Amino acid sequence: MAKTKNENTEQQILEAAKKVFQLKGMDGARMQEIADEAGINKAMLHYYYRSKQLLFEAVFSHAFAMMAPQLNQILNDDSSIEEKIRHFTHDHLSFIMEHPYLPKFIIQELNRNPDFVTNMKTKTGFPSIEKFKIQVAAEVKQGILKPIAGEQLFINILALNIFPIIASPMIKAFIRADDEGYTQLLESRKTEVANFIINAIKA
Amino acid sequence: MAKTKNENTEQQILEAAKKVFQLKGMDGARMQEIADEAGINKAMLHYYYRSKQLLFEAVFSHAFAMMAPQLNQILNDDSSIEEKIRHFTHDHLSFIMEHPYLPKFIIQELNRNPDFVTNMKTKTGFPSIEKFKIQVAAEVKQGILKPIAGEQLFINILALNIFPIIASPMIKAFIRADDEGYTQLLESRKTEVANFIINAIKA
DNA sequence: GTTTGGTTTAACCAAATGGTTAACAAAGGT
DNA sequence: ACCTTTGTTAACCATTTGGTTAAACCAAAC
């Protein structure tokens, strides 16, 4: 059997599909463009992935799988809330600065088809917020933190980290920054966001 | 001239286009669907708006025009930073809770075509952050606020308000809330977000 | 060296898409 | 009454879209 090229091709298709889907979204992506990007015939896409929908789901799952472990870091780690916040904001912002299309893509496509999240929840490794909520409640009771619900704190952390990435074109316009200036602004946030949050919640 | 229906029709088209474009985005929207939604013939869309692109731009401008005044409230009002934050977070979150598709739509389409923001910047009424920056610097110097750059504070305010709306499907999944539970969570944020921010920055 | 079975290609297809056209209807102005 | 302008419709059009097919290709098994 001819196996020389095949493992390669399937991977090449996935890489090309990631590129195109994450840049243009499901609706804006064209199978022909993915084929061109992969340097192969359009029929090959269907040979390996049957349909646009299935190829898209492969890409989406892959993208989601890259984000999930990051979240588990803050949700299920054993350090204190303050330590978690300092580590997570820094690491996570560094990560999405290098993959800005990941959160854009996931959030956009989840808005397009909210039912999609149902599939995700069944998958193993889907982040659970339970432990984090208990920990926050405990530290509030101990007087370490000002009263706050774990959900709200979690949302705030994500918001402060992710929003500047997904809304970058709009924010760039507001603050009149070029790409370099904006990168520098984000660079500052790697430490400033943690200070901001901790000031907000520390008793 | 036949005017009986016309003023009506053009508006009906715009309303239908808003609905469809804001729900599905430029790429996902179909001219036929907009025509159906408006209860008219597809040719009428082109009669009044020439092309999909121009109809889309009409919708986008309209959407942006609804958001801009809200931002000018926090950027150019004359009250103190603390007062601004309390008023803005409450009013703005109330507003986007009633129009959740507005920020989703604007951010999604700005990511699809970042050059689009250039057109917006030239329009009158495009929010400027200058006054806000000066005010923040002044209050920091007076010792009212902890040191923070105006841009960063502005980003944080927007992030805490807007992110929970645009990422709602994802967050709903994380915190395992149904629609009602999520609405309640957002309802709390109308006052909690202001407290959070003010705790973070007040000296 | 021929068979074998996965791989790759070019040509093809039906459906959908944005857009156009030509005819028609309604309304005013003269 | 007649003509012009504006609004509306149904039929049509070229192109693009995701998807299919049948034949060619090619490395290995026999």
UniProtKB/TrEMBL annotation, chains A, B:
Residues 7-67 form the HTH tetR-type domain. InterPro entries: Homeodomain-like_sf, HTH-type_TetR-like_transc_reg, HTH_TetR, Tet_transcr_reg_TetR-rel_C_sf. Residues 30-49 bind DNA. The keyword Nucleotidyltransferase does not apply. Keywords: DNA-binding. It comes from the Bacteria. Gene3D superfamilies: Tetracycline Repressor, domain 2. The keyword Ion transport does not apply. One of its GO terms (molecular function) is DNA binding. This is TetR family transcriptional regulator. It comes from Roseivirga echinicomitans.
